[in-house]
Amino acid sequence: MEQASMTFEQALTRLEEIVRQLERGEAPLEQSLALFEEGTGLVRTCSGLLDQAELKVARLVKGADGAPQEVPFEPEQ
Question: Model's pTM, two decimal places?
Fold first, then answer.
């Protein structure tokens, strides 16, 4: 499956598989490099999907009249 069409969960699952394969250390060098390259791409994919999700998140807060209102999500730092 192409990384661009993966869901976050699919990309993360594949990344976990790659990590397990690399940790076993049984793959030849060329295959290990290909797995590492795929893994770095998946990290970028996951990061981008998380960034998109963060932009969509809004939290509810109490407005001046006591009614809940939506405000953009701003991460605490």
Answer: 0.70
Whole-angstrom Cα distance, residue 42 to residue 18? Answer: 10
Q: Are 18 and 27 in contact (CB under 8 A)?
A: no
CB 15 within 8 Å of CB 42:
yes
- Mean pLDDT over 51-59 rounds to 71
E-assigned strands of the chain? 58-62, 68-72
Q: Which residues contact 7 (CB under 8 A, 6 or more apart)?
A: 49
The arrangement of secondary structure in 3-72, i.e. its CATH architecture, is Orthogonal Bundle (1.10)
Q: pLDDT of 25-44, one tens digit each? A: 999 999 999 999 999 999 99
Positive or negative, the Cα torsion across 44, 45, 48, 53? negative
**Domain residue extents for the chain:** 3-72
